[in-house]
Amino acid sequence: MGTKEDVRSRLNIAEVVGEYVNLTPAGKGRMKGLCPFHNEKSPSFQVDTDQGYFYCFGCKAGGDVFSFVQRSENLSFGDALRKLAERVGIQVEAKYGERSSRDLYDVNAFALTYFRDHLPGPALDYFRRRGLTDETIAAFELGYAPDGWDGLLKHARTKGLSERQLLEAGLLTENAENGRVYDRFRGRVIFPIRDHLGRLVGFGGRVLDDSKPKYLNTPETDAFRKGEVLYGLDKARSGLGKSDAGKAEGAESELIVVEGYMDVITMHQHGFTGAVASLGTALTAEHATLLERLGARSISLMFDHDEAGLKAMLKGLDQVLGAKFRVRATSVPSGKDPADALLAGDDAGIRQALADGVDEVHYRVQAAIETHGTANAEGKRRILMELLPRMQNLDPLDEIAEGVRTAACETLGIKPEALLEWIGSKAKRRTLTDTHLAGMSAGRGEEENELKLLRQLLIDPSLLAKLDGTKSWRNESVRKVMLAVQGATSSETILDVFRGQPEEQLLIRLLFEGRDSGGLSRATNEQYEQKVNAYAAAAVDDIQVAMDIGTMRAEIEFLTKQIGGATPPEQMGLLRQIQDLQRAVEAEKRGRRGMA
């Protein structure tokens, strides 16, 4: 029996890591590449080939070759050791406590042979009626559990397996009242369930008649946790993380999450080799973590287009928070499930449905609108509350959250900065009143000018000295910034004040808009900066004048509306105020022309 060090001595860490990461030289004894454990555009992941360790300067992941395989394959140390030992032809002894799950795989393998031996007959006829070829039936190792109480149990006893081993593997059920044990799977076609490493962790069974339950899975065991397993991933994973250019012509690079075993099998048979299925659950956070680790980049959710299917899709979308996937939602246009559609020859319909799938942003927003409507404040309030969980992540790298916020603003007529303020306020989120909603509605004129002014001040904070401090701000975000940045000397200082706050996204957007120099060369960039700063100084004056004029015009409009319901003496007073304001507007205009 070999040891861990025996295995390590025969391994080249760069060769092992190189199967997961495209490594390039980075100096003597060093290799670098894009980290497989987090998304990045510049390589911060390094391998020290002399010392036998890896380290990522971005996410801080590090370790030896064993820990790398553990993280990459989602394995225990014992399984990673065995995997690498097999690679170099060394046999290692399992440690205490590691043997139990290994026993479960062996017991499951024994049961699979039993189920496969009983396939000929009604079960095989069923699969053929569903359009499966003999090659597909063999590839997915389909079988049948005979209709009897203890067929598997009796067979196991003749081979020296105990009741306890079958119970631990979930192959037997025990009657709590009398202690009797009997086969869990009886009179069902059998779908072996393998994890992403190809280990046989459990089974799914389907009845051939109308009895209930229609489907039955292995219960939770040390080897089988349904929230961590995706049916068909052992076959679909070969395409994950590969670009279309690196795949064979016609091959599918997208992961397609469907509902059932037959959907997965039939889709694979018809060339949709990225199909997988969750086992009676929506996608879980564990699924998302695993898929991200395996290099999944694009996921399509293909569920039934009914209320239950829509809920399943949204739950699946909820679980990919923080995972860097492009997620799209779709369904078969005919209303059939994918297996039936393909059996009917509608390969083109499936392919078109996948091509036309709605991205997560539009799917979420459209589903909320269809459910609640936008005709009144109550509908808009419910839409915002439904979208809130997917909008409240303010990480600039979360493009989906930003997209949902943008779509919500466009659809509901809400100011982006007002939405960010609401998202950041727990009190307002709990009590989104009609007043709050009205205050979030997108406005023009005065508030637009306030944002323009803030943009210029971000370009040159020294222009804050031009403000006299008496201005009252209509835009709440602008008001907060103006109060907090007195004395600031740089845009970085202003951003630091609001780091992690809802206003940060607004400031970053305004800063980029204000300093967009396009494709200027280094030689002309300094001249550009000088011109921008000169413009900013003049713009602050112009914007303040425009803001003052806008305020006075708004006041004139307000007073004019009051005249109709006022008494004659009150009307005279209102008219005098209006005339004074009009003269002030003309004076501001003359002053503005004079400055020009």
TrEMBL record:
RNA polymerase that catalyzes the synthesis of short RNA molecules used as primers for DNA polymerase during DNA replication. SUPFAM superfamilies: DNA primase core (SSF56731), Zinc beta-ribbon (SSF57783). Monomer. Interacts with DnaB. Its EC number is 2.7.7.101. Contains an N-terminal zinc-binding domain, a central core domain that contains the primase activity, and a C-terminal DnaB-binding domain. PROSITE patterns: TOPRIM. NCBIfam families: dnaG. Signal peptide: none annotated. A zinc finger (CHC2-type) spans 35-59. The lineage of its organism: Bacteria, Thermotogati, Deinococcota, Deinococci, Deinococcales. The keyword Nucleotidyltransferase applies. Keywords: DNA replication, DNA-binding, DNA-directed RNA polymerase, Magnesium, Metal-binding, Nucleotidyltransferase, Primosome, Transcription, Transferase, Zinc, Zinc-finger. Residues 253-333 form the Toprim domain. Its cofactor is Zn(2+). It catalyses: ssDNA + n NTP = ssDNA/pppN(pN)n-1 hybrid + (n-1) diphosphate. The gene is dnaG. Binds 1 zinc ion per monomer. This is DNA primase. It comes from the Bacteria.
